[in-house]
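Hi team,

Below is the intake form for Alpha/beta hydrolase from Lentzea alba. Please confirm the fields before the structure is written into the shared record.

FORM ID: S-0412
PROTEIN: Alpha/beta hydrolase
ORGANISM: Lentzea alba
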Amino acid sequence: MSDQQEALVASYQDAQTRTVSAGGVDFAYRELGPKSGVPVVFITHLAAVLDNWDPRVVDGIAARHRVITFDNRGVGASTGRTPDTIEAMAKDAVTFIRALGLTKVDLLGFSMGGMVAQVIAAAEPRLVRKLILAGTGPAGGEGIKNVTRISHLDTVRALLTLQDPKQFLFFTRTPNGRRAGKQFLGRLKERTRNRDKAISLRAYGAQLKAIHRWGLAKPADLSVITAPVLVANGDHDRMVPTSNTHDLARRLPNSELVIYPDAGHGGIFQFHEEFVTKALEFLAR
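The structure came back. Fields below:
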């Protein structure tokens, strides 16, 4: 596919899956949107692969920015062994970003991806222009050490009711939340060809361990992150309690906060239109 054709890919469901090799890993990734400007690198959540990004969020941001999504080490179609610390995941993400020849990026980190993004922004301030942190929390944040227990419980609930665990983990149990969850899960199935490999149980276990360690860690000095940060969440996040979102906004020196009503961990997906509008305005400033 030529650069001209690639630039015309307007929808995430049509974006080609590519690989780039660095640090002994073949990283699987997709990109779309315009070729110029600072790209937005998406860093994903626990158990997620390339196909777990809401296409409305990806396409919405890719309407004005080059968007790059990727599987980190050992996840989905990427090779290697998934590390069990957030810090090691951050190093691998930087290796991937540099392998694409990028010297300046914006980061959009959701949930576990937001933890990884915080470490990258603190360790590599010259690399990161702006940050969007959604459904996430700081090291040592309230209730983060319970993610494993909540994930296991809701996976069992989902199995017993023949539903997807994300219906419970990402959305409220109100009529609005249930409807938004069904719509979100429907959108994740829009791509029918060349889908990614599901995460392995070993990689999932390593990620759970990393999040648990993050939850037990000492609070970090977030004042070192001077890049502008947009912090977003739903008002009823069960996975990473919403109090963590408020805590991040207070402790990051250059932040703004968005909280969506009657929404859970997946608030940015439930309110994808509002979120995309806000994110584009934040990135354009």
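SUMMARY LINE: The radius of gyration is 17 Å.

Thanks, M.
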